[in-house]
Automatic annotation (TrEMBL):
Biological processes, Gene Ontology terms: riboflavin biosynthetic process
Signal peptide boundaries: none
GO MF terms, alphabetically ordered: 5-amino-6-(5-phosphoribosylamino)uracil reductase activity
Pfam families, alphabetized: RibD_C (PF01872)
Protein name per its UniProtKB record: Deaminase
TM ranges: none
Taxonomy, superkingdom: Bacteria
Lineage: Bacteria, Bacillati, Bacillota, Bacilli, Bacillales
Residue ranges constituting the Bacterial bifunctional deaminase-reductase C-terminal domain according to the UniProt record: 3-180
Gene3D superfamilies linked to this entry: Dihydrofolate Reductase, subunit A
């Protein structure tokens, strides 16, 4: 059975984007960090996205065409392109990447079946879509990629009104001040 993983860049005060919708403060340009994230996601075969997150991530479909990309960036682009993507959107009509399916709504029962049938892990990306998976009790692992910044407001990593017991399974520190915290959900 595959794990459903919620992984996002977040500020130290728990926001995935600031009150203006910006998140560039969290882009991992550091080779050590980016390579570690590549390693973390190497078990992933399916990405679940909302429309906004998908539109950001669709960049990776053509990132290999940009001259002078470092090898660790090309490695991530290759991983992303090889995976299946499911995008939940009521407005998107056509995917901007290969191996992409568009669905109109998030169905927890369908995700549970997907977890049962999948050979590789699944990520749910974006705090709005992840909140639905968290509230349905579907998330098996939380990966908080904590950036050394406080943004003071915006979109939170965790949804309000949810209580979840967690067990720390890994913490990793980087020279640039970034910390990755991985927690398993206690179900």
């Amino acid at each position: 059975m595959a794990k459903l993983i919620y992984s996002m860049l977040t500020s130290l005060d728990g926001y995935t984007e600031d009150k203006h919708g910006k998140f560039g403060w969290g882009v991992p340009e550091d080779e050590e960090v980016h390579s570690y994230i590549n390693e973390l996601t190497s078990s992933v075969g399916i990405y679940l996205y909302g429309r906004k997150m998908y539109e950001v991530m669709a960049y990776w479909e053509t990132a290999h065409r940009i001259p002078d990309q470092p090898e660790f960036v090309l490695d991530w682009a290759h991983q992303w392109k090889a995976a299946e993507k499911i995008v939940y959107s009521s407005t998107l009509t056509e995917p901007r990447s290969a191996r992409t399916l568009i669905k109109r709504y998030f169905d927890p029962e369908e995700i549970q079946k997907l977890k049962s049938d999948a050979e590789y892990d699944i990520t749910v990306d974006g705090p709005e879509l992840a909140s639905q998976a968290i509230k349905a009790g579907l998330v098996d692992e939380f990966q908080m990629i904590m950036c050394p910044v406080i943004v003071g407001g915006g979109k939170r990593f965790f949804p309000a009104g949810v209580r979840q017991e967690l067990e720390l399974i890994e913490d990793r520190r980087f020279d640039n001040g970034l910390v990755v915290l991985r927690y398993a959900a206690r179900n």
